[in-house]
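# step 3/5: fold
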Amino acid sequence: MDELRTPDFPVRWVLITIVAGFVLVGAVVGVITLTYGGARPSSFPQPSDLGAPRLETEPVANHEAWLARQRALLSGAEGRTPITEAMEAIAARGAEAYAPLPAEGGAQ
């Protein structure tokens, strides 16, 4: 029990492989550092003045106008169709119920 066992694989080759891997990684990092080090500019351009932000002059009035337009669309004929009428319209189309709808201009 006190005797040392010899490994079943060559330890020397494993160590050589590990050291060679580190040397290879170091060489690649060195080549990349030397090659791409000159690709960076020595100084970056100063940022240009973008000017003042363009803010809405009347955001509340603009929002209220948009909200009124949206409510007008919803209260129109297409926005308030009861579900029973909508389902009847789909059922009336029969087998063509899931076919593409015609374009708004009437052309297909």
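# step 4/5: annotate
The radius of gyration is 37 Å.
# step 5/5: archive (pending)
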